[in-house]
Predict the structure.
Amino acid sequence: MTPATEPATSAEARKAAARFLTVYTNIKDEIGRMMVGQDDVVEGVLTALFAGGHVLLEGVPGLGKTMLVRCLGEAVELDFSRIQFTPDMMPADIQGAQILVDSEGGGHELEFREGPLVANVVLADEINRATPKTQSALLEAMQERQITVGRRTIKLAEPYCVMATQNPVEQEGTYPLPEAQLDRFLLKLVIGYPRESDYDAILERTTGTQEIVIKPVSNGVEINELRKIVRDVPVPAQAKKHAIRLVMGTQPGSDYAPDEVNEYVALGASPRGAQALLLVGKVRALLGGRFAVSTDDIDYAAANVLRHRVMLNFHAMSDNVNADKIVAAVVNKLKNSAN
């Protein structure tokens, strides 16, 4: 990560933060015309978009994961595509392939047809149903922002964001994502069931006669400009040190690791986790009208940033300990040591 550069004056910083908050609120409100509840999930998806990262959405079917990403693609004037992964899908199905077409002279010629990976916002539905070979093709697009087909390399236009979904219940016919690919997701968001008070609005919007049309309130150029504002948010030394210690706290044997980590964790988060904490913290600071990251911003981001970067051992599974409990233990230990 390149170091953040602070704006010349505090007035410029306030102006940048105000602009970011205005655009963010406009997009969130437009999505809210269709989506009911799930404010934390909507915020997480928008955070990934503005931070320049990818997001993994986990939840049982029917909770609106696909609808959320589709609404985002409509609220922001971006090229949107959807991939429904299945075990028989090949890399060429998502990257693109050479197609034999008729030429004007009556002959045939090869023409490259781009696949659905060539877009700005890519919805990768049920990503864990894709085979490792197809998952690796998606990994290149996520990490390198390009796809390679034969000798052809296609640079993907920014903003580029992969929003993948997976069902945590069904395991038959699935291929769990390897740790290397999970680490490429900026956030992992767990979607729960809606509250009882939300059901009435959900049913009204989805079973009634009124059609809700999501209108574009932003575009790719503006999103790229706001991404630069996010990068410009400075991180004080205290907040940076806190993010580093939070990541080290997930690593067994570290001075900052609580007993739960040493007992239940097989592999902790890497430096990419610290990078993600700072980026999400910057977005969180802007949402609070501040142009500097605080330790509270880092703590707020911890669960969504680190839950998929902590590999648990068999002892954790037998004791019903999940990654969220581990991250919470690390956060609590750092808070207690600070006091």
About this structure: The first helix runs from residue 10 to 32. The two ends are 30 Å apart (CA to CA).
